[in-house]
């Protein structure tokens, strides 16, 4: 019986949030979020917290599609449709892309590994904790470094700066006992 009540509360929360979107009223949004949290609590009591959280998150995401379909609009075709760019196999472009490939997949990977190991070696954890932390930090750090590399116009300066930073981490990795 509590599952049926939780389902009803979920539908009510979805309707209130939809109404807040239609009339652009933040009061309805906050009320809808409170009702949605109440439905999550009801789902957790009815089905256990493992399935309750799953139901509280998934049922609204499935039930929202009829609202999306109801509010669907078709825009007119744009007047100036952009044409796709042609393939550019000129020597300069190919060499630039190969250089970016090598820098990202070799140089910046080595930089991110050295930075991660240098940072994790300084942490006051056991070796297992340091390696677990390195496993989590490495892809995040590598992604941020690669994003910074592609976002800047001065790629050589950025690469040199990261090389200096990794050179500073190298003595920590080599000489700090783990």
Protein architecture, described:
- The chain has 178 residues and is mostly helical.
- The chain is 80% helix and 0% strand.
- It contains six helices and no strands.
- It has helices at 2-23, 26-47, 49-70, 91-121, 127-151, 155-175.
- Helix 1 (2-23) packs antiparallel against helix 2 (26-47) and helix 1 (2-23) runs parallel beside helix 3 (49-70).
- The longest helix is centred in the middle third of the chain and has 31 residues, at 91-121.
- The protein starts with a helix and ends with a helix.
- The relative contact order is 0.07.
- The mean pLDDT is 90.
Brief sketch in words of this structure:
Helices cover 80% and strands 0% of the residues. It has six helices and no strands. Helix 1 (2-23) packs antiparallel against helix 2, helix 2 crosses helix 3 and helix 4 (91-121) packs antiparallel against helix 5 (127-151).
